[in-house]
Amino acid sequence: MNTTIQAILNRRSIRNFAATPLKQEEIDALVAAALASPTAMNRQLWAFRFITSQTLIAAMNDAALCHFRETGDQATLVRIAARHESIFYGAPLLVVIAMPAGAGRYAPIDAGIAAQNLAIAAQSLGLGSCIIGMASASFAGAGGQTILNQMDWPEGYEFAISIAIGHPAMTKEAHEIHPEKVRQIR
Ligand SMILES: Cc1cc2nc3c(=O)[nH]c(=O)nc-3n(C[C@H](O)[C@H](O)[C@H](O)COP(=O)(O)O)c2cc1C
Q1: Which domain holds residue 114?
Q2: Buried-most residue among 14, 35, 51, 149 (CB within 10 A)?
Q3: Which 3 state secondary structure label does DSSP give 51?
Q4: Is 64 touching ligand 1 by the criterion CB < 6 Å?
Q5: Residue whose CA lies nearest to ligand 1 atom number 7
Q6: CA-CA distances (angstroms) from residue 70 to 63, 107, 138, 140, 148?
Q7: Residues of the chain below pLDDT 70
Q8: Does the Cβ of 84 fall within 6 Å of ligand 1?
Q9: 114 close to ligand 1 (CB < 6 Angstrom)
Q10: Which tens digit of pLDDT belongs to each residue from 125-150?
Q11: Is residue 166 part of a domain?
């Protein structure tokens, strides 16, 4: 089987990373993969923040947990506690993808495609990843503006999606496959 299909089939959501930092050439390859993503009408509206500051990642986690506590979202807090002490699972790299607010229906699709490009690129480099939608909570609560200020956030942009990347410290089975969801129309 070709290596791209192998990377797609072997990717898992990794929820525990080793502390080992990524090499700069690995980060450079991930940046190239993100910027190579297709976008509707080639608008390339996204802004990427490649965050390796563990201080900032910890602050984002604290802000998210604080938001869930403020909103009384006990179910989410319990789910998080069962998985890891951080919603970013100890990843040495967090990529945040932002889109201009009100950019239309293709903006979240473009962001999702970039996230998957990053996930497959990470897999092909022998790294693991987990897409983290929950990171929206880092910006939603009282500490949100402080977080934005620390990442040179572009004016008028909003969080679209994020992806944690690093060396896996766990293995995971593939998710259940549902072939009945596919019809081949001949
Ligand atoms: C848009 C999106 C948001 C997600 N957000 C989170 C998240 O906040 N935290 C998390 O642990 N996993 C998150 N995931 C990972 C999914 O839970 C995971 O893809 C799914 O359970 C299937 O498992 P697999 O990725 O190992 O195949 C997200 C995935 C997607 C596509």
Answers
A1: 26-170
A2: 14
A3: strand
A4: no
A5: 132
A6: 10, 29, 12, 11, 19
A7: none
A8: no
A9: no
A10: 999 999 999 999 999 988 899 999 99
A11: yes
